[in-house]
Amino acid sequence: MSLKTPSFVAANMAGNDSDIPQNIPSCWQQTVQTWKFSRRLTKYILFSFADIPGVSLKIRRFSLQIIQMPHQIYPDLLPHTINCVTFPLPGEGPEQQLLKPNEWSYCDYFWADKKDPQGTTSVAGFEVLLQKQLKGKQMQKEMAEFIHERIKIEEEYAKNLSKLSLSPLALQEEGTLGEAWTQLKKSLHDEAEVHLKFSNKLHTEVEKPLLTFRGDNFKKDLKKYDHHIADLRKQLMSRYAGVEKARKALADRQKDLEVKTQQLEIKLSNKTEEDIKKARRKSTQAGDDLMRCVDLYNQTQCKWFEEMVTTSMELEKLEVERIEWIQQHLRQYTTLRHETDMFNQSMVEPVDQLLQNVDPSKDRELWVKENKTSEVRPVDMDI
Amino acid sequence: MSLKTPSFVAANMAGNDSDIPQNIPSCWQQTVQTWKFSRRLTKYILFSFADIPGVSLKIRRFSLQIIQMPHQIYPDLLPHTINCVTFPLPGEGPEQQLLKPNEWSYCDYFWADKKDPQGTTSVAGFEVLLQKQLKGKQMQKEMAEFIHERIKIEEEYAKNLSKLSLSPLALQEEGTLGEAWTQLKKSLHDEAEVHLKFSNKLHTEVEKPLLTFRGDNFKKDLKKYDHHIADLRKQLMSRYAGVEKARKALADRQKDLEVKTQQLEIKLSNKTEEDIKKARRKSTQAGDDLMRCVDLYNQTQCKWFEEMVTTSMELEKLEVERIEWIQQHLRQYTTLRHETDMFNQSMVEPVDQLLQNVDPSKDRELWVKENKTSEVRPVDMDI
């Protein structure tokens, strides 16, 4: 896949120089002016001759000579290669369409490396995505821990209520009031059971799933992705090194040719036309080598690109699944809370019922029947 | 108030002897027979002469002589006087109507003393009523203690939930999922507040009232009643002692008269008619004394009776109030429970709402905007 075709370069031939940075050191100003002209000229040539078979290679060779810049000194002025990855110059080429517009997809936003704000090291965009996944796993673990803490609190509460429900306090209250009181104590025990049930369900339906979701294999899988992408990056780095080496070799050959040509003109040495032809041939060969290295580089970058797209989409999917899974289980938590409150409410009802039935007259009857000392009243003593 | 008028004695003249216990020792059989006859005869006389003015006293005197029984030996055969309180013999007189029929009122069932099952001591019926009131006060105190224990449990629970709600676990979760998680933690804090509020209201609306209902004055008032009734009982005891003393004196005088009469008949001594007249006069006087003592006794018993009725009605009312008051405050308890469950339920709602809003796409957008490393994709390296 060629990311940059002659046609769209040509389409930009008339483009302005807004991509050239403003803050160029003054000693380079002249060089930059020359180069700007050269670039425009090259673009014209490319446009004119691009589609003629056989011409393309010649033109490319030629344009190399024209638009070659001492890029080792000011690398930003060429199509950006940062950390061996090549990006378009700002403003150059048509606006890039997102691979997945309106989706804020990982595959559109993590191509560049992230600079470490404190130092000079940087981290691959893919690494940022990976860290996100690892953090997600950590979040899941912490949520499980939180639920565990709630479980402990509920168990403690249940234990305390249960213990209190067995209290003998006011055990001796009798009659309808005594019944209501007994039921009140029993309802405390029932409440305890409700909270115990709640804590058990929290454990099986929320805590445990949160803990076991994506077991140990998950981290292993992430590591696999990590290594795979890192390997491809390393390959890219080595291809880029090849390009740099070829570029330098070409520059050396060109310099040599230039020097020899000048020397011939001023009859400075006994170099013959033959020597110049040889130098020119070596220069051309160096140019071909460079093109070959650039092709290899581009192929490797393509491979890395494809893998990046596939893998970042996988991570994106994993994140969607993680969020949905957590959402589902937290909803289970709130469902259990609702249930618990409803059960709790129903535990109070028998107490209400019996309290409504409290009847002092009934209680007096029961108590008097049990405790009366006589059923007759005193009478006058007889003579 | 005379509890036993000649008219209703007379109405029973033809009554049977079913009131006489069956298990009379054989040595008393003959005496009992004589007495049964005498009783019938007396009733006949009383019936016949009861309404003739001036006759009543004579008849009463006469009947005393007839129906006098060695009651000191077998007291149960006279209208029951137990511990100085006089009860009708079973079966004698018309069926007593309850002062407050169908109400199981204290004033109908606590006239007799209660025998201590283990020993020979006994406790006044009124004492049983008093103990009931004291026990009621104890019950109220124990219920307050129970509520206090619940308050402590609720405060502990609230404290634990509140502490957990401040936990930094999974604090780093972001986006819509992070918001839902934050709300979940906040709802825990809100739940804690609900339980704290519950415990505070339990304290002011249930525990404190239960503790302070009928303060220290209550026991003092009960003591007053106790002493007042006990004093009247003591008076009754001393009146009864007076009756016994007069009864004995009469028996002695009658014996003396009998002996003197016999001696005259067999000309055993030089006793004159004059001596017999004197003996008879003393006998009659002793009879009058006895009647006076009996009247005093009956008046005192009346006074005690009236106070008993008034005071036991007061205790009955206090018990009704106590039961209703406790019922009211336990209903307050269940009301607070209902409220608490409802508030608790409403605390979960914002969490449900935010969980419903959890949106993996939105979260990806937010995260990518924040963390993206580039907005352009790599392109082919140019020549």
Question: What report would you give on this structure?
Answer:
The structure is a homodimer of 383-residue chains. Chain A has a domain of 78 residues. Helix content of chain A is 70%, strand content 2%. Chain A has nine helices and four strands, in the order αααββαββααααα. The N and C termini of chain A lie far apart (137 Å). The N terminus of chain A is likely disordered. At the A-B interface, α3, β2, α4, α5 and α6 of A face α3, β2, α4, α5 and α6 of B.
Structure, briefly:
The structure is a homodimer of 383-residue chains. By secondary structure, chain A is mainly α.
List keywords for this structure.
homodimer; 383 residues; mainly alpha; two-stranded antiparallel ribbon; 9 helices; 4 strands; 70% helix; 2% strand; rod-shaped; disordered N terminus
What's the total helix number of chain A? 9
Overall radius of gyration of chain A: 42 Å
* Total number of beta strands of chain A: 4
Low-confidence stretches of chain A: 1-15, 68-77
Indicate the percent of residues in helices of chain A. over 70%
Strand content of chain A: under 5%
Oligomer: homodimer
> Sheet bearing the most strands of chain A, described?
2 strands, antiparallel
Shape of chain A: rod-shaped
The structural class of chain A is mainly alpha
Task: Kindly report how far apart the N and C termini of chain A lie.
Answer: 137 Å
| Chain pair with largest interface | A-B, 107 and 107 residues
Helix and strand string of chain A, N-terminal first? HHHEEHEEHHHHH
For the largest sheet of chain A, list the strands in their spatial order.
1-2
Mean residue pLDDT of chain A: 84
Pfam family, one (chains A, B): FCH
GO cellular component, one term (chains A, B): clathrin-coated vesicle
Coiled coil (chains A, B): 247-274
Domain F-BAR (chains A, B): 102-363
